[in-house]
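Record type: ASSEMBLY
Status: queued
Input:
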Amino acid sequence: MTDTDATLSDALARIATAPDADALRAIEREFVGKDGVVASMLGAIPTLPPAERKGAGQSANQLKQAVLAAIGERESALEGAALEDERKGEGFDASLPPPRIDRGSLHPVVQVTRELEDLFTSMGYLVLDGPEVELDHYNFEKLNIPADHPARDTQDTFYCDSPGSKATLLLRTHTSPVQVRAMERLEPPFRAVVPGKVFRQESTDASHEHTFHQMEGLVIDRNVSVGHLIGAMKTLLRGIFKKDIEVRLRPGYFPFVEPGFELDARCPFCTDGCSVCKKTTWIELLPCGLVHPNVLKAGGLDPEEWGGFAFGLGLSRLVMLRYGIDDVRHLLGGDLRFLEQF
Amino acid sequence: MFVSYRWLARHVDLEGITPEQLGNDLTLSTCEVEGIEPFAPHLSAVTVGHVLERAPHPDADKLGVCKVDIGDGEPLQIVCGAPNVGPGQRVAVATIGTVLPGDVKIKKGKLRGVASNGMICSVRELDLGDEHDGIWVLPEPNGEPLAVGQPVGEALGMGDWVIEIDNKSLTHRPDLWGHRGIAREVAAIYERKLKPLDLSLPNLGGTPAFPVKVDDAACSRYLGLGIDGVQNGQSPDWMRQLLLAVGQRPIDLFVDLSNFVMLDLGQPNHAFDRTALDGGGIAVRKAKAGETMTTLDGIERDLETSDLLITSGDEPVALAGIMGGEESKVQGGTSKLLLECAAFDATTVRRTSSRLALRTDSSARFEKSLDPTLPEKAAAHFARLLSEIQPGVSFPMILSDEGSWTDPATAIHVRGDVVRRDLGVTLADDAIAAILDRLELHTTPKDGGYEVAIPSARATKDLTMERDLVEEVGRIHRYGSVPEAPLMGAVLPPAFDRRRAVVRALEDRLSGAARFHQVMGYSFQSDDLLAAVNGDKGDFVTARNPVAPEMAKIRREVLPSVLGLLESARRQRSEVMIFEVGKGYRPEEAGEDGLPREVHQLVVAIARAKVSGENGAFNEGAFFRMRAVIDDVVRAAGVTVPCWSPHENQLHAALHPVKQVMGQWTADGVPAGVMGDLDPEVRARLGLVGELDSDVAVAVLDIDALLGAPEAPRTYTPLPKFPSVKVDVACVAPDDLPASTLAQAITQAGKGSVADIELFDVFRGESLGEGKKSLAYHVVLQSANKTLTDKDAAKFLSRLERTLESTGAALRS
Ligand SMILES: [Zn+2]
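Status: finished
Output:
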């Protein structure tokens, strides 16, 4: 056995038992590095008799090749073993809780409002806005509800004072004032919806709140009939509940529409009566009707030429129906435990 | 309003129509039926018993031991304390286990040692009246004793259904506030005939009319009917039962009859004791300033000159159309009455009744504008009913009938084409006419349409124009028979609405990537809250009738609403991130139509638990998080990010006087908004102290300003073609040198090649020397037309070294 053979078998043995890549690098440096065994073998060649030089060179090179090859092999073996190890997945517990990622939320009223706005804009409705602090004139007078009209009693209005203002101000009791504002501003025919905050002076409980949200709808055109109103309301309900809903119109009294209706929808939550529909299978969903000729006149339109229909959707109520919310006060209460659910 | 099914049947044949069906049809054609309940269901639970004997109780003088046959084998032994119980009577027996009104369950018991197996009921125990000084001796409606063992309700034919109608749905229908009016609707719905009712006055005597003087137009008609020879007492059972069914407790004949006429025809009326009235007669006038009167309920009322009074000898005897006076209460002993049936102005009655918060059955009817022809019919009805009950009564006087009323009956022209157009139906003209005729709105062909006669009962307010008749046809034809039709006309997408788009983008970014929760607040802000947060001190719009006195202010700004939520939110979460998009009102600035100007604001708040000691890294406080969030959401909304700079004045009294900035797009331009830490005092007042001690930053953005700012649509910049060079730079600077000065110096030294600057460390320490800080940046150099090298980086550093000299900073070696 030559010295070279001995060196080689020593190297191979150490390579075979090297525990990791660092150990392999050390062995590599020791044998084939700048000052390594192979380098010193090559460095000793000039001192050898010329006849041995070639052989010595060859065996140094062979040693180098053999060491590098063995290191390469050991390296891939170690890598393979490491991957195999990783595959074992030791200590993994899938049931540990993931880290908490708090997320934000859009207010549920905003979510439903947007959904309806998108539905209506796809049908050519404009989305309008109107003042929350409103003139009595628009909230009542122009809607065919003159002073001392008995309907005013049922409205529980917050009348307001504003320094420097002589007009009779109030917090709008419905989004309907925007009907006349829209007629005054827009060229007929047009279609519009008005989402917004409305106010009623009443004591609050789980189903009553002095501040809530509505969406008014108004279509002004020639030859608009109750049939068109029914068609539009069915389309609306299909959009809200994602299925066809049977509806019925029954007389309802609202001074700014004539005829006026209450629209009931077949309860989407049951077939034979539940707590939502109070066992009747009908849900009173929205007041609507043909725009009263006096309101058209107040909006500057000729009732002989133009007609239309209007409806008022209770957004807060719809949100409560949609999510089964049992207390209307949660909507504006700002409780994070409520908001985080949406 | 309650309607009795049996009462209705006095006016229209209900054969074959169940109460449920009636309720349903009324709902679909006329008004909202809220419920249908069987009347006095407990009357089916008590049994007709026959009292066989009454023996004295061995140990109690006042008690009797009765044997009562209830047709069920052995008679029951019942101990009873009523003085009027005696053998031979038919009585209402509640046996063991029966539940009576008020959830009273009858149990087996012993009274003074004697077993009692049930109860003989009084009228009051069955909720049929107030009498309780004895048991109810059952009447004999057919002249013979009732069969023993039957349920009492059945034996007396008292089975009835009570239909509850939503008053709101009758607001516009003065004619429906009595059973006859509802019956008229029922007749029209089922095409039946209304039963005849004699409403002509009986023969009146020739004694001069009771003097009546009407001095005010608010009383358009005052009719007084003199009645003699009456005797008060109990009203007949049939009347008592019908009154009970609609929730009216029987009192005595005079009161019951008055109520019955009102509930039957809808005309309130009032019976005065004529002997108690001043001989000078009745005068109707407005109240005098400072005048008072005590109403029947015993309350003294301060009157105003707009209140209408019925007076006698110039003393008020009734608040017109609302309530009688205590003085004029009819005493049981009188035999002479004056029956008042009048027409009062709806608005006058409504104003007085709402001012005094005194709503009565009478005022509810008058404020609907009653038919002025009704008083005469009601007087006749009263007189005829009374004559039936007490055939001896007489009407000796000429009828008093004063006032300047006119018959409102009118005519409206209706066109078939208009009815068809508005309803969207194909009804023929004669079918339209037939429906109107059914409603007693009689039609005569005229001018290609019909002239429709509107009777006085419908003409006061309800039916005034053609469209009103469209409704009459529609509701009887039924809206369910109207075919659904699609809207015609071009559907064009509405014009782009930038406000809505910007608001949506802000909301989306905040609730999405930035992880904030959206809140929606009340427009009212309490005085306490405003004081706590140093709210805007300007003028407020105020509610005259707030839900609570301290909640009158309508907000000027959204910020206090959001701040008001922080304390309770922080109790639940260590980090609270919320925002609201809402409106505030500024009385001092005129908006649309002279309304207070609406400001549209976005308010964002971050409140998180303070970390004890060092509060994380240099820019991890809530203030800097807010800066990052706001710039990001503004950019996301397509709006140019404003430049945020410190301000020498406190920007908002709720903000920290130093840790605050104002956003602007140009140096003297409109403010985009303000942001900053919360003033420590405000924070403390909000309760964010102690275990809730919080690092709080808020931002207020003016959405109108955002809409007026330069838009910043997303743009594309080509990706660099050459690799960039990264250089780390550490600058030592005087403590008060703003970081922005260093950033400017770096940009300047880069001569256009600085692609990114990131501050990654701020350090203060002894090694730097007193009053010094070190700021370390990663700087990326990038050229558009060549690969930058280490040599370029070295040039950059030496330029930076020179640039920094003028700022008092230096590169850290
Ligand atoms: Zn249901």
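Annotation: Residues 3-88 of chain A form one domain.
Annotation: The longest strand of chain A covers residues 211-221.
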